[in-house]
Every structure is written in C-alpha cells, then in structure tokens.
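Why do we care about 3D structure at all? Because function follows from shape, and shape follows, mostly, from sequence. That is the central idea of this module. The next example makes it concrete: a single protein chain, its amino acid sequence, and then its structure expressed as tokens.
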Amino acid sequence: MACQVLIDLEPGIKGLAVAGHSEGSVVSLMFLTEPRAENAMVDTYISLSGPAFRFSDIMMNPDEADSRNGIVEFSSSRVFLDLYERSTLMVRYGDKIPLDITKKLHPYGIQAMNEEGKQYLRDYDTVDSNKLIADVNVPVLIIRVGRDASISPNDADKLFEARCGAKVGTYRAFFPELQHHYKLVPHGMSAMEAFVLDIDSDDEVSEAIRKRLSLLR
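And the structure:
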C-alpha cells in the first residue's frame, strides 16, 4: 500500500495525511472509508474544495446559468437550460441522447463524451460524499473558497454538517476571494475567466494546511 511505502521511505515520519482536491477528494474519501484503510496509519484528512453533492446534481446547477432567460453559457456557447438539464439526466441514467439534441449542446460537454467516459461519470455519480466523510475516523480539515465556479462554497458547509456526529475533530478554513485552484480573483471577473486565471495559487491555503499538519508532530 502506498501509505506504508511512504512510511518506510521516511522512518522518522511523525504523521501521515491524505488530501484530495475536487474530484480527488471523493477518491480520498472512498479510500479512507474502505476496510483496508484501517491499517493505513493515516492521521488526518484534508478536503480541498471537495463536492458534497453528486456529480450530475452539480452539473445541473452551473454558475453560468441565467434562470431568468433559461440559458446556460459555456465560453462562446449558449444552451437552453432545460435542454442542458434533460441531457445531463440522460447521461446519469444511461439513456441515448438523440442527435438533434446533441447538436444543440456544447461540443465539449459531458453529453458529447464517448460511452466509456459516460460510464465513468455514472459510477462517480453514485458516490455520496456526505455519507463517506461522516464515516472518516481521523480529524478532517475542510478547505472552502468563495469564488469557485466548479464547487459551490455550500458544498463545504454541507460536508462540515455531515461531520456533526464524528468522534474526532473537524476543522475548516475559508478563503472568500480564491477560486477553484486557489488563485486570487480580481473583482469584476466572470466565473469562466476566473477558472482559467493564469497566476500562482495563493500561499494562504498551503499555510492553513501547514498549520494543521504541524499538529501531527
């Protein structure tokens, strides 16, 4: 197991943390809650902008949606929101999307993926992160940001609430002006522009993680 390899490579190690960003946070939760993880000697878990809602539910609530006009925008593409939601549900349930609908959607959206890719998303869509994080038996740090166009800040709150009955501590750190990749978003920038912002990630997040990890020593 990878955790044991790390411990063997660093004999003086004081603690071991598992962290996952976005979709990676779901993978981390799946690992930490499977039976063999009990022997992994993990001391803490860090959720970095992890989703609380299932994949299709997140996709059907895009920040780019204009509910007043029933439109969702993807860069230069504009799609009717009801058509977008209908096709997303088709992917969720494995229904074939008619060609006339596909032509009206974003050419690089999930609806245009091959069947193998869609099946992966269906498998991913079955994972309930709230249930999994409630079952994690080590301290948890939840990183929440305020300018995330992919994962709503509400997801972090929901994950925190799911930990209310946990026997070990749950902590959170909030960075209101950072986007999904922890970059500082200038005021007035659109969600799409912010997502592809080409600057370094902010040191505040790594510092919050450092402080939490320092408690392992």
